[in-house]
Specification:
Elements lengths: L4 H10 L3 H9 L9 H14 L2 H12 L6 H13 L3 H14 L4 H13 L2 H10 L13 H24 L20 H5 L17 H16 L3 H12 L5 H11 L16 H6 L8 E13 L5 E8 L6 E9 L11 E10 L2 E10 L5
Parallel strand pairs: 3-5
Antiparallel strand pairs: 1-2, 1-4, 2-3, 4-5
Helix pairs in contact: 1-2, 1-3, 2-3, 3-4, 3-5, 4-5, 5-6, 6-7, 11-12, 12-13
Length: 363
């Protein structure tokens, strides 16, 4: 569909191609004689290229046709502002506010005059082009938008093609045991609670639904190779009013857990959590750092120490725990060390059965 010159010229102005727009418009001077939008558009284009004399002339012609148009008043106010005639500029901005109270350009210009309206600052804004913030707005520069969109689209397409050609493989996790025999029957789910609660004291009193949910989570964590998280759910069950059949199955589940190392251990509980609820973390594995003290080596070759848990610089001390090893682990007691071990909780006391240690070779 064929477009008129004013529309075409405006599109060039939106792309900041003002000289092209001016040439198009000037060639149609006779066609658009005494046309308000023609004069405002041509005056605005001249204003943006810095031809203030021509811009002022076109705006004055437009003003003879219509007096209250916001873009016309913004253009004329900008000319006075460029010259440092802030009083005249403010008159125009206030007139804009009377007719168009939500005009953001007028608001910004009034604030600028109020806070930075000295002539030196205005000169710098004219020199750097920042003064254009107060010109009649043109909208987004479509050339800049396409300049951003096209490279971005190309990058996204490239990334997409990369993953199509080189698909990301899921990390390999070795298959775990078939736990079909440990699934709860419908009857076990419906009657998961112990019938008689008077014969024992329980840490947790749970509903049938809560017990079956905990058991399902323990199974799920196991399948995700998160044995520590699974152990916590099992411990919660073992300290609850779950019936003996479910507790037995939960104990069987723990027999499938694997012994971790420093690289494979997951869901390591911190000392504060263990200290707060020791029964929840019984048999969980830890990887804690700190220093050893009160070292004892016994005749049977076993080793024990108090382990002071903290950061490498030992600026933060969390607590201490007794650690036992079946053999001397070769720890330099004056240096930071990480200990991998399994928690053992008895009578509310926390013990770590040490398995391995890591101490940096750099002193």
């Amino acid at each position: 569909m064929r477009q008129d010159t004013l529309t075409i010229a405006w599109k060039y102005m939106c792309r900041r191609q003002f000289s092209t727009a001016i040439k198009l418009l000037e060639d149609k001077a006779q066609t658009y004689e005494e046309h308000f939008d023609y004069y405002v558009e041509l005056g605005t284009a001249c204003l943006y290229i810095g031809d203030i004399g021509a811009a002022s002339s076109y705006f004055q012609r437009a003003r003879r046709i219509k007096l209250t148009d916001s873009n016309l008043l913004l253009g004329q106010a900008a000319i006075f502002l460029r010259r440092g005639e802030t009083d005249r500029a403010l008159q125009y901005y206030l007139e804009i506010k009377e007719n168009d109270p939500q005009n953001k350009v007028a608001d910004a210009a009034i604030e600028f005059v109020r806070t930075h309206g000295d002539y030196d600052t205005i000169c710098r804004w004219v020199d750097t082009g920042r003064i254009e913030e107060f010109y009649p707005p043109l909208g987004l520069n479509t050339d800049k938008i396409w300049g951003l969109v096209i490279p971005l689209a190309a990058c996204l397409l490239g990334v997409l093609l990369f993953f199509v050609i080189f698909p990301v493989k899921k990390p390999y996790l070795p298959s775990r045991a078939d736990l079909g025999a440990l699934e709860l029957s419908d009857d076990e789910k419906k009657s998961a609670k112990e019938a008689d609660l008077t014969s024992q004291v329980y840490q947790y009193i749970l509903s049938d639904r809560e017990i079956t949910k905990l058991y399902s989570q323990a199974i799920q964590y196991f399948q995700e190779h998160r044995d520590n998280a699974s152990q916590v759910e099992v411990n919660r069950i073992l300290n609850s009013n779950a019936n003996s059949a479910i507790k037995q199955k939960a104990k069987v589940l723990t027999s499938y857990y694997e012994i971790p190392d420093f690289d494979t251990i997951r869901d390591v509980p911190d000392f504060a959590s263990v200290n707060a609820e020791p029964h929840l973390y019984d048999d969980c594995w830890i990887s804690w750092g700190g220093k050893v003290s009160n070292v004892n080596v016994f005749e049977d070759g076993t080793y024990s120490c108090d382990f002071l848990i903290g950061d490498e610089e030992f600026r933060h001390f969390e607590g201490s725990v007794l650690v036992n090893f079946e053999a001397v682990p070769g720890i330099e007691s004056d240096r930071y060390v990480k200990i991998l071990g399994q928690l053992e909780v008895s009578g509310g006391k926390i013990l770590v059965k040490g398995r391995s240690v890591y101490q940096s070779v750099h002193k």
